[in-house]
Design a protein that fits this description.
Structural class of chain B: mainly beta
Oligomer: heterodimer
Number of helices of chain B: 1
Shape of chain A: globular
Largest sheet of chain B: 5 strands, mixed
Largest interface: A-B, 38 and 24 residues
Order of helices and strands of chain B: EEHEEE
Distance between the termini of chain A: 60 Å
Chain lengths: 257, 65
C-alpha cells in the first residue's frame, strides 16, 4: 500500500490524542505497529513547552506524521493551518478537515473541496476527511486528492460503519485510489469490517486512547486490520438466504424408520 | 505598541516578528506563526515588521486525531 508514493506495511494509522499519558501513547503506537500517526498544532502556551516535549517524543518513535487541520471551520483557517503544519512538521502531507456541524463534526464538504483545490495547487499531498458521498469524492479527486478518507461514523462516536452500502459504492467507484476509513471506529470488528470491504487502511484514535488498556487495544486493532485485509484478498463468499448443509448428505447412514 | 499573541495583549517595542518572538520567550522553539490570519514562514520572520494591533498566532506540535 502506498500514499503519495510512500510505501507502508501497516494499514493502521493512529491518532495521538486523548491518551492517559505520553508514556501510554508511546506504548500504544509501538503495539499498533502504525507507521503513520496523526498530529495537530495548537497555540503554544508561554513557559510550559508542552508542544516541544510532545514533538521530541514523537520523533523518538521514528514514525511518519500526518498533521491535521482539526477544528478548522473555514477554508481560510484550514489553508493557513496547512501552511503552518507543512513548515512545522516538514511534510507535504495534510489531513484536511473543514468541519461544519458541531454535534456530528460532519465535514463541510463544499469548503473541503475548495480548500483541497487551493492546497493541491500549492503542492500539498492531501488526505481529505470526508463523508462517503460519491459526488464529493469525485470532486476531491478532480481537485488533486490521491487518497480519500471517508468517515465510518462521527468522530469519537464508536458507532462503526454507519453506511456500509455507501462505503462499498465508494470502493467500487475508486478502485485505484487508496481509501481509508477515518473516524467512528469503536472496536476491532469495525476495523475488520472496513478492511473486508476492500478499504486500504483504517485511521482511528479514541477507540485506542480511551480503552482501559490502550496498548492492548492497539494490538487488537492491528490484528483485526490484518485479518480483515487477508479476508478481503481471500475473496469472501456471498451471503444467501437459505441454509446449505456444510456436511455432505450423500452417504449418510439410514438410521430412521 | 500593543499587539496580541495567541489572544493575549502584549506591550512590545516596535520591531520584527522574529525580535518580538524572542522577547516573548519563543526563541529556539519548534513553532509556526501567522500574523492577522496569514502564515508567516520562519524564513521571513526577521523581515516581517509588526504594526499596532497585529494579531499573532504562535502554534506548536500537539496531539491530534
Amino acid at each position: 500500500m502506498s500514499f503519495y508514493g510512500v510505501e507502508l506495511k501497516s494499514r493502521l494509522l493512529l491518532g495521538t490524542a486523548r491518551y492517559p499519558s505520553p508514556k501510554i501513547l508511546g506504548e500504544a503506537i509501538q503495539a499498533s505497529g502504525a507507521e503513520v500517526v496523526t498530529v495537530s498544532l495548537r497555540r503554544e502556551a508561554g513557559p510550559e513547552r508542552a508542544g516541544q516535549s510532545f514533538w521530541s517524543m514523537v520523533r523518538s518513535l521514528g514514525v511518519r506524521v500526518l498533521p491535521n487541520t482539526a477544528g478548522c471551520h473555514t477554508v481560510k483557517e484550514a489553508v493557513t493551518t496547512a501552511h503552518m503544519a507543512r513548515e512545522l512538521f516538514e511534510t507535504p502531507w495534510i489531513k484536511l478537515e473543514v468541519i461544519r456541524d458541531e454535534d456530528t463534526l460532519q465535514p463541510d464538504v463544499f469548503g473541503l473541496v475548495e480548500a483541497a483545490q487551493v492546497l493541491a495547487e500549492e503542492g500539498f499531498e492531501i488526505f481529505p476527511y470526508t463523508t462517503e458521498d460519491l459526488a464529493v469524492a469525485d470532486r476531491l479527486v478532480e481537485a488533486g486528492c490521491r487518497v480519500l478518507m471517508p468517515w465510518g461514523a462521527p468522530i469519537g462516536s464508536a458507532r462503526g460503519l454507519n453506511n456500509v452500502y455507501g462505503l462499498k459504492a465508494l470502493r467500487a467507484h475508486f478502485p485505484d485510489i487508496p481509501l481509508v476509513v477515518d473516524a467512528g471506529v469503536g472496536v476491532p470488528s469495525h476495523a475488520a469490517a472496513a478492511m473486508e470491504l476492500g478499504y486500504d487502511a483504517v485511521l482511528l484514535n479514541t477507540a485506542v486512547a480511551e480503552a482501559g488498556d490502550p496498548a492492548a487495544m492497539a494490538r487488537a486493532f492491528a490484528l483485526a486490520i490484518e485479518g480483515g485485509r487477508l479476508a478481503f484478498n481471500a475473496q469472501p463468499m456471498e451471503p444467501r438466504d437459505m441454509a446449505v448443509p456444510s456436511t455432505p448428505t450423500i452417504g449418510r447412514a439410514a438410521l430412521g424408520d | 505598541m500593543q499587539i496580541y499573541v495567541n489572544g493575549d495583549q502584549h506591550d512590545v517595542e516596535p520591531g520584527t516578528l522574529a525580535v518580538t518572538l524572542d522577547a516573548l520567550g519563543f526563541g529556539g522553539r519548534k513553532i509556526a506563526t501567522a500574523v492577522n490570519g496569514r502564515f508567516v514562514a520562519a524564513a521571513v520572520r526577521s523581515t516581517t515588521k509588526l504594526a499596532e494591533g497585529d494579531q499573532i498566532e504562535v502554534v506548536a506540535p500537539m496531539q491530534g486525531g
